[in-house]
Design brief:
This protein is mainly alpha-helical. It contains three helices and no strands. The N and C termini lie far apart (43 Å).
Length: 82
């Protein structure tokens, strides 16, 4: 995969879209999908092995993955109420 700075813009765009969908549109499952798609556009050096990445990069990606899981659970929980 060719690393371009465009990946960072796509990553940030999907993050912002996910937060908009969660905070303003109250579409939590859609927010989880947008945040999950954002993970496909690794903002860091995508050619770098996971073991070679700095801890802070690992932490950012794992927190992002946790937000996706939490948003999905939140969305499913709210749909249970209806």
């Amino acid at each position: 995969m060719v690393k371009t700075p465009f990946n960072k813009y796509l990553y940030l765009g999907f993050i912002l879209l996910g937060f908009y969908q969660a905070l303003f549109a109250k579409e939590y499952v859609q927010a989880a999908a947008s945040l999950g798609i954002g993970l496909a556009f690794d903002p860091f050096e995508s050619e770098q092995n996971w073991q070679e990445r700095p801890r802070w990069q690992k932490a950012v990606l794992l927190v992002h993955l946790g937000l996706v899981a939490a948003m999905l659970g939140f969305g499913i929980g709210f749909h249970d109420r209806n």
